[in-house]
Amino acid sequence: MAARAYRDYRECRSAFEWLCAEVRELPGGVHHTSEGSGWVWRLRDPEDGAVAVSSRAYERHSTCQAAYERFRAMLADLGTAEVIPWGEAG
Fold first, then answer.
1. Per-residue confidence (pLDDT) for residue 90, from 0 to 100
2. Separation between Cα atoms, residue 51 and residue 24, nearest integer Å
3. Which of 66, 24, 88 shows the shortest CA–CA distance to 54?
4. Contact assessment for residue 19 and residue 4, using Cβ atoms and an 8 Å cutoff
5. Which terminal residue of the chain, N or C, has fewer Cβ atoms less than 10 Å from its own Cβ?
6. Which residue in 61, 15, 11, 24 sits closest to 41, CA to CA?
7. pLDDT of 39-90, one tens digit each?
8. What is the CATH number of the domain that holds 31?
9. 43 in a domain, yes or no?
10. CA distance linking residue 90 with residue 69, whole number of Å
11. Is residue 87 in some structural domain?
């Protein structure tokens, strides 16, 4: 299952900002790969569409779970920041 694709930078950036703000409310978790030979994580929207997926499969469930939890924590930190640090000159 792949995450959504976006038409342009603005649409992608807006979706990422929404993801950061809403991550605490989004379901997700760790699952076997479709081939059954590893683990991947996914974050889903309320309609069960994938909004973020791991970029690779993990050999161990515990490693995948740790990566998933770090990703959620990073998004939550960014979501509570006044401004997401895009690296742009003000």
1. 44
2. 13
3. 66
4. no
5. C
6. 61
7. 999 999 888 888 899 999 999 999 999 999 999 999 999 888 777 777 664 4
8. 3.30.160.160
9. yes
10. 31
11. no
